[in-house]
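If you are new to this repository, start here. Below is one unmodified record pulled from the training split, so you can see the exact layout before writing a loader.
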Amino acid sequence: MVVDSTPDPTPSRRRPEPLTRLRSGPGAALITATVLASMAGFLDANVVTVAVPAIGRDLHAGVVALQWTLTGYLLTAAALLLVGGSLADRYGRRRVLATGLVVMLVASVVCAVATTTGLLVAGRVVQGVGAALVVPSSLALLNGALRVADRAAGIGVWAGLASLGGLVGPFVGGWLIDHWSWRAVFLLNVPLLLAGLLALLPVPESVAGHGRFSLDTAGALLAVLGLAGVIDGLTTGTTAGWSSPRVVIGLVVGVACLIALVPVERRLPAPMLKLSLFTSRQFSAINVATVVLYGALAAASYLLVLRCQLTLGYSATAAGAVLIPSSVLFLALSPVSGALVPRVGPRVLMTAGIVCIGLGFGWLAVSGSGSYAATILPGVLLWGLGIGLTVTPLTAAVLAAVDDGDLGEASAISDVAARVGAAVLVAFVPVLIGVRSGRGLADALTAGYRPAMTVLAALCAVAAVVSAVFVRAGREAGPRFAPPAPHGCALPHAATTTRVLTTARTGETA
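And here is the target side for that same chain:
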């Protein structure tokens, strides 16, 4: 079903707003609102990983409930991201961003006061809905409201400030868990959300150009049901048994919905998923690599934090800090890799970077239980080196595979691919470590951590081969700015930044 909406004939709705100068009150408010929104989304996705052991102890939660605490957010954020972009274009980027922030705010409070795992998971699912509204509308608002001459600078400021928040978020969350409660993790973004809403007050509305907009409800429903069925089947199968009715029905329904999504989208005049882009072999291959790589990154981040707390005896604060070196290295190397893309092309950088990530996972798989500097840090540094080399050329390559008129669609699909990969691989973690009925995460990690990390290293090898074979060696220009390091479940993707920078250079309103 496609719901078609004609443009609002009200003159006040269609009258173009004057564009905002970056160095002005509304410009500062615009930057503040979008930075705070990005930070809140990162915290909602990543900081919860550090809180999983504490949630399990306090709520006596089993593996399935703990997994859904993570994947519930990832599921709705990934499945509804494209719908959120359509809503922002139809009803206004500022309006949809404000709505998403309110949804996230209410859901965060629900999570913080939840006394049962059911209520906590429900709050996380709603948080993901809010994120699906916030993610596409925030940068679209930044691009659509700023003057053309100020857009690239505005995105640069946004990227730098959002990265700082992502850098310290898990560490701060861990400190709050150690000194107060896991509930504080869900309140950590409340000041950000409230401040973001206040900052939006002087920001002008930004609406896409004239035309008809379509809301692909059929595609959205199939995506949500499909991912939910697959994720629930993977999550539940380890404890309930793979032949249990819930697992079988969930997997069958989920796979059937995802398969049905293709013909449904193909028949719609304005689908949320533009399948014609996948006629490009490079575009298809890179999105496959994106699903595999970003899924492996999310699963590895989860595994490492769990191991540090449950088997190595790290505090939540220390566990939240283990990946800070990789984030710092990523931020330092991203401008370098961006400058190298036009010179050497994306294929070499992508392949080398993904290999480095795989080597980092391999190191973590074989390292013992000694000091952090001797056992974990070398793998984390290889991890950071790899994502620093990979993210920018990956973005350049996926966008080089499509026409200029499809850059927005291509970047959105690439974002969704990263988030779907994260949701599925995080759901697959109990399978990787060998969780069984009556055996919790801590018990399974003792014997299952190393094989699981080895599998994730092998997945990186697959992504590297795909990149080496299918990515063109042409020297395509890449983005100059990159978002926060994608080592965790938030996985903000550089394609979004590239989309905005591209439109900033051309003078279009994304």
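Two things worth knowing about this chain: The chain has three domains: 17-205, 217-271, 275-510. The domain at 17-205 is CATH 1.20.1250.20 (Growth Hormone; Chain: A;).
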